[in-house]
Amino acid sequence: MLLGMGNILKDLKEKLDGEVAIDTQTRDYFSTDGGIFKVTPRVVVYPRNEKDVIETLRFNYNLLDSNRALTVTARGKGTDQGGGSLSEGISIVFPAHMRKLLAIDTQTVTVQPGMIYSNLEDVLNSHGRFLPPYPASMDFCSIGGAIANNSSGEKTLKYGATRKYVDSLRVVLYNGDVIETGRINKKELKQKKKLQDLEGQIYRELDDLLENNKQLIEASRPKTSKNSAGYDLWDIKRKDGSFDLSQLFVGSQSTLGIITEAKLIHVAYNSKTTLLVGYFDSIKKLQQAVFEISPLAPSAQELVDDNVLKFVLEKHPEMIKNLLPEQMPKFVLLVEFDDIKPKVQAKSAERANTILQKYAYQQKISSNKLEQDQLWKIRRQAAALIWTQQGPKKALPIIEDGVVPLDRFEDFVEKAYVILDKYKVKDAIWGHAGNGHLHIQPFMDLGNIRDRHKVYALSDEFYKMVLSLGGSISGEHNDGIMRGSYLRQMYGPETYGLFKQVKKLFDPNNLLNPRSKLGSTKEYGMVHLRKEYSMKNLLEHLPGLSSFH
Q: Which CATH code, of 3.30.70.2740, 3.60.9.10, 3.30.450.20, 3.30.420.140, is assigned to 394-527?
């Protein structure tokens, strides 16, 4: 039993329809996610419904008076690469039970947070619809996690990130109160501000904060095409006076409240696309091609470098057999068009092909689905294979989410190589070229003391470089433990101070995921570095004999 927690946990269990687990094996399983940290929860709760989430937070809130309250973190499938789903206290795990599709109509779909992203996409695709910002981890990740991180992926170039597709949310606040969020007009906002409860206080104080700091907030808006760092203060209140708290909860990593239901906007899906592949001998030529293709509104512009290709050719050459030209490219660019109108799609692809002919030394164009699937392996399968590296050195997600304005992309790539070379680490680079967004994973051994010391030294230099180019520390993976300590550096002390006020308003006792975002420090990260890296947390884990009764 955990430090005298037995009676307390029995009382909690009696209030829940779901399970509570405190055994060592379960707690150890949820001590890691897709990141490099290990933080062991004291309690794991598998809620069956929203009532269980309410009861857990309310029960925990009532322990404040006796100084026995625990910290609480929501968790989906744990694909988060920055440690944002880890908890020292209670880990509320959604995929076991709360994974249902609740409603669907011609424009929206309502789901529970534990639903696996690809399962939702399969349903939507069968209706000729889809949720465009799907991440590369869609086969594993949960919808709740995608919302909490403001996730995005290859289609974000054309369609935008997750926040654009969130219509409304149901959220449980730190004290167990439930609110429904969605865009409300000026009159409705006025009514909300009259409420004499926590919800009313939130609307009053947040509106004041936004109104009193308009210039500062606008001046600190990132100039990048994507951003998941910090709290989104830019999209809550519009010029017409309308107000949407959903925009603040998206990307907040359960530090402000816990999402129990999401109503999402879906759009028309076209499976008939045109794919172009360009093979380049320099980043300068690739950037120019990307820059000229961008006005044609491609649905994707994806990149892999030669380090990724060489890794695949060494380990699994059959995966990309016959997909590369005789001359090994320094970079490969994949450009996709998915316009609903065939003539528009064909014309755009033809123009893009003309541009590629100027800058790539070889290129391909295909409208054949089977051939496209093979070509996409260069990007999708190659990047995924990196994570299967055997031996102590693993591709680590420590500098994997920097994004810069597109006109600085060449500088970004070249400076990244210089830093990686300085620290003498083998690396693999891929990402979303059309967004100026790179995923860089250096191969390091967390069991090696020298490599452990490199983690933050390398990260410090990398993020300083990203910010010097006008970039963001996180394009789509969010802050968590890994990047939270760089938020003040990115936004400056004044805007960081606004973030702290927002956190205090929603979570005055700092109970909700306190080590992510604003509560993250390099010292905490170093203490909690894993000794080895794996993705074993992606296995299915359900409550069973380990449940506490």
A: 3.30.70.2740
